[in-house]
Automatic annotation (TrEMBL):
GO biological processes: UDP-N-acetylglucosamine biosynthetic process
Keyword Nucleotidyltransferase included in the entry's annotation: yes
Domain Mannose-1-phosphate guanyltransferase C-terminal, chain residue ranges per copy: 279-348
Organism phylogeny: Archaea, Promethearchaeati, Promethearchaeota, Promethearchaeia, Promethearchaeales
Record pathway: Nucleotide-sugar biosynthesis; UDP-N-acetyl-alpha-D-glucosamine biosynthesis; N-acetyl-alpha-D-glucosamine 1-phosphate from alpha-D-glucosamine 6-phosphate (route II): step 2/2; Nucleotide-sugar biosynthesis; UDP-N-acetyl-alpha-D-glucosamine biosynthesis; UDP-N-acetyl-alpha-D-glucosamine from N-acetyl-alpha-D-glucosamine 1-phosphate: step 1/1
EC number of this enzyme: 2.3.1.157, 2.7.7.23
Protein's name in the database: Bifunctional sugar-1-phosphate nucleotidylyltransferase/acetyltransferase
InterPro entries: Bifunctiontional_GlmU_arc-type, GlmU-like, GMPPB_C, NTP_transferase_dom, Nucleotide-diphossugar_trans, Trimer_LpxA-like_sf
Matches recorded under CDD domains: LbH_G1P_TT_C_like, NTP_transferase
Catalyzed reactions: N-acetyl-alpha-D-glucosamine 1-phosphate + UTP + H(+) = UDP-N-acetyl-alpha-D-glucosamine + diphosphate; alpha-D-glucosamine 1-phosphate + acetyl-CoA = N-acetyl-alpha-D-glucosamine 1-phosphate + CoA + H(+)
Family membership: In the N-terminal section; belongs to the N-acetylglucosamine-1-phosphate uridyltransferase family.
Gene Ontology MF, one: glucosamine-1-phosphate N-acetyltransferase activity
Keyword Nucleotidyltransferase: yes
Listed Pfam families: GMPPB_C, NTP_transferase
Length: 432
């Protein structure tokens, strides 16, 4: 049976992505020039899923304003607000009327994956008689994931949350499902878990225990990334840009003398490339930007619309969001800079520890190992950075912050903060 309906769970607050989600919902975080959710919707359309339900919550009005009824994206979009956050089963149950009697694809909206994954699982379901389907990916650290134990025929037998080792295998739940109406029976018979939520995995286990055939489809050979941490945004940006295979330079782009462009690049309309600028692809530059003079843009970077990268500034493997300025003599490496941010002259985002060890980030009060040796700064929207500011690796600056000149950022700065280094008392003596 062909699938034409898809539901995307996109209501979460994305607190692990702060400060990027202080002023926008996680689905609208730009990756490789498009919001995360737009990538997913376009993949749905490519696979003939044209009726889409978005379960929204945090900053729902911004999502609805951007996507509207879906006509501009070649699909039909409807919305339901998730007013209570009682778990994934509770969220999925909101799709009951949308699904009606039809099978539907369910997708967690904080993921990015290869479009061929959708093609694979849709073909698997449509050419067989299953009661449901669940995607799986091989993980070397099963103790961090929900693991799927299969029987000899490849059907789901048990879901084990974060087992102590790989005794149940290494196939983790990858967050893409196909369900028929049986799932709503499972949800109706699901009780709250120990953490006080209605878990979709418990609803699926209910069906398995009643001999429903839930097929496990291994997607390990394709790109998949859960975009739950800031560095995973950069990983996904890197992957998408690395897949670019042709230049897309708008005819209205203006190049002054001695501009160098190497590799594959995408440059939007009305962008000005000033003299001496060196662009090394693959990378993406938006529309209405001013780049240079003498700017250096390095691979795997995304520059948004209406941005300025000024004299002798360098951008490396970073995301610069719309309306942001990196005017002159600054370095931004392995970083994400929000919208309407201004970096003062001489701003440096340090992206490597002096001892060359992996970088940890403080998120929600916990120190998280990123497994990254190179990782820069994460700056929220509307921040203003003074001249000669140095930001240490893996540090966050909240939205609407003001950072005074000559400040060294060695810990996270909360939103709406004013931070400056008080200069030592100066004494001016008159010459004899």
């Amino acid at each position: 049976m062909k699938i034409s309906k898809g539901c995307i769970l996109a209501a979460g607050k994305g607190t692990r992505l702060l400060p990027l989600t202080e002023t926008k919902p996680k689905p609208l975080i730009p990756i490789a020039g498009k919001p995360l959710l737009q990538h997913s919707i376009e993949m749905f359309r490519e696979n003939n899923i044209t009726k889409i339900l978005l379960i929204v919550g945090h900053y729902k009005e911004k999502i609805e304003e951007f996507f509207g009824n879906g006509a501009d994206f070649g699909v039909e979009i409807s919305y339901i607000e998730q007013k209570e956050f009682l778990g994934t089963a509770h969220a999925t149950n909101l799709a009951k009327n949308f699904a009606d009697q039809d099978p539907f694809l369910l997708f967690y909206g904080d993921q990015y994956m290869d479009s061929r994954i959708f093609e694979k699982i849709l073909d698997e379901f449509s050419t067989n008689t299953y009661d449901g389907l669940i995607s799986a990916k091989y993980m070397e650290d099963p103790e961090k994931w929900g693991i799927l134990k299969s029987n000899k025929e490849g059907f789901l037998e048990n879901l084990i949350e974060k087992p102590p080792d790989n005794r149940y295998g290494n196939l983790a739940n990858a967050g893409v499902y196909i369900f028929n109406q049986d799932i709503f029976e499972g949800i109706a018979n699901t009780e709250k878990s120990l953490r006080g939520e209605y878990e979709l995995t418990d609803s699926i286990q209910y069906l398995v225990d009643r001999n429903k055939k839930i097929k496990i489809v291994d997607i390990s050979n394709y790109y998949w990334n859960g975009v739950g941490y800031p560095w995973q945004i950069l990983e996904t940006n890197h992957h998408i840009i690395s897949e670019m295979n042709t230049d897309l330079i708008h005819s209205s782009v203006v190049e002054e003398g001695s501009v160098t462009i190497k590799g594959i690049v995408e440059i939007g309309e009305n962008t000005l490339l000033k003299a001496g600028t060196y662009i090394e692809g693959p990378l993406i530059i938006g529309k209405n930007c001013v780049i240079g003079p003498n700017a250096y843009l390095r691979p795997y970077s995304t520059i948004g619309d209406n941005c300025k990268i000024g004299n002798s500034s360098e951008i490396k493997a970073s995301i610069i969001m719309n309306h942001t300025a990196v005017p002159h003599l600054s370095y931004v490496g392995d970083s994400i800079i929000g919208e309407h941010v201004n970096l003062g002259c001489g701003t440096v985002t340090a992206n490597v520890r002096l001892d060359k060890k992996n970088i940890s980030m403080e998120l929600k009060g916990n120190l998280i190992e990123t497994h990254k040796r190179k990782l820069g700064a994460f700056i929220g929207d509307y921040a203003s950075i003074g001249i000669n500011v140095n930001i240490m690796p893996g540090k966050c600056i909240g939205s609407y912050c003001e950072i005074g000149s000559n400040t060294i950022i060695s810990k996270n700065v909360p939103a709406n903060s004013l931070l400056f280094t008080k200069p030592k008392q100066q004494q001016i003596l008159r010459k004899k």
